Amino acid sequence: MPTYNVTVQDVSPSIAYSAGWIDSNHGDALWANYSGGTFHATQIPAASAEITFFGTACWVFGAKRSNHGTYTVTLNNTDQFIGSGFSENPVFQTLLYNNTALPLGTHVLTIANGNDPNAFVDIDWITFTSGDGNSSNAGANTTLDDATSNFTYLPSIDAWPSQATNSLAPQYLDSTLHITNEHDAQALVSFEGDAIYLYGATSGNHGTFSVQIDDGPVYNLNGSAPAFRPRTLLWYQGGLKPGAHNLTMTNTGTSLLANNYMDVDYVVTESFASPPATSSQGSKAKTPIIAGVVSGVGILLIWIIAGLIFWSKRKKRRSRFAMEEGRAFHSNVPPPDPVIIPPDPAVVDGSCPPGPLRSNSTPTPNFAIGRDGKRRPDMGRAVTTPGTFNEVASSHNPTLSDDEAPGPLPSTPPTLPAAKKVRKPLQLHSPLGSTDQPSPTTPLLNQGSNTGQLITSPILNSPSNSQLGAPIREQDWGPVEMATLPPDYQQATERRNPAVNH
């Protein structure tokens, strides 16, 4: 909280005077030179005045005159200061004592007259400083009048009669006051704040009373005065913890005499952002918390950035791997080198006759279907002499007229001459998709012989047939056991002449 000064006039009940003090002797010709025209003086040796305050510094003001002597100031019952109030020429409202190096807290100051029975000492006012000097926590003052709901009067409101018709009421705040002369009658004030000021009047018919904050110590005060003084600071209490508090003001007069009155006018509360005694500790406690939060946020940001970088690199690596893998999968495989098909040894040595062909035709080359979809020569089969594909197709699929029909097959096949040896192998590059290719499932019939022998077709046993359907093995074909061969595809699909008998 910021530092602030609290001034307590000599007529305030906050200053407890011992016996022998005179209140504002108007028989003194110079009394008007004191602040507010009031002062307290004593000529009694060791007579004392005591005040309790919460703060860090204090000042005592009075007068120095030719009839004043020495005095003693004691702080917290340990530190003692001896001063002199003597002056040939009177000096009023001057500093008698100060201490500005006190720790923040509650202190007790006592000023006492010296031992000279002919010397005086007087007090004009006392000021003390409260707060820890933290100007960032500005204080807020709140005034609560005696007529507000914050006040509760005990034992009942009947013990505090209305003063609406009292001629002195206009001198009170808002022209309202509560007064009682009932013993142990109480005024309770509920408030929130760090400090409280209690205001009321002192007068010749007022007596003693006590003040207590919450469950704290009880302070006994005296509201008696030679004159009526409204709006007087009756009591100040600082150093309270923030939050709700209760002040209890009790009339301690012993009888229902005329000088046992006690009144209350209003209170002023002060609130600060932090309690004065712990504000420094609170600031220190918040520092590591803030530092920890900042550090945690920084570490979290670092992890997030690292994660994003890792994720980005991993994504790029995956994309690059996928591109390389796709490029490898779709790469163009170069076609294999041309295959040289050697002749079938059985045909070369004459052990297996190839079968007669037409004079203008050549045997059909063996083909296999490659993985690229193109026809490749069959490495496991041999061909005879070179010839064109169209010649082979035409020799194996003769066209019959409407008057022709297949002839009868002989019972025994004739002996066939040996084929010529082929010395030069045939190199083939015919595409599989040629329109001249015969159907792989149609057997080739020897049209130039009456043996009815089926020509073994290399195409049927080529690798392409295993891909196009079930494989057909050569040993599955034997001599035809039927009287006549079945017609080929062209014969079966030609329109027959009804006049021809089979």
TrEMBL record:
Gene3D superfamilies: Galactose-binding domain-like. Residues 493-502 have a biased composition (Basic and acidic residues). Residues 355-502 are annotated as: Disordered. CDD domains: TM_EGFR-like. It comes from the Eukaryota. The keyword Repeat does not apply. Keywords: Membrane, Transmembrane, Transmembrane helix. The keyword Isomerase does not apply. This is Transmembrane protein. It comes from Sistotremastrum suecicum HHB10207 ss-3.
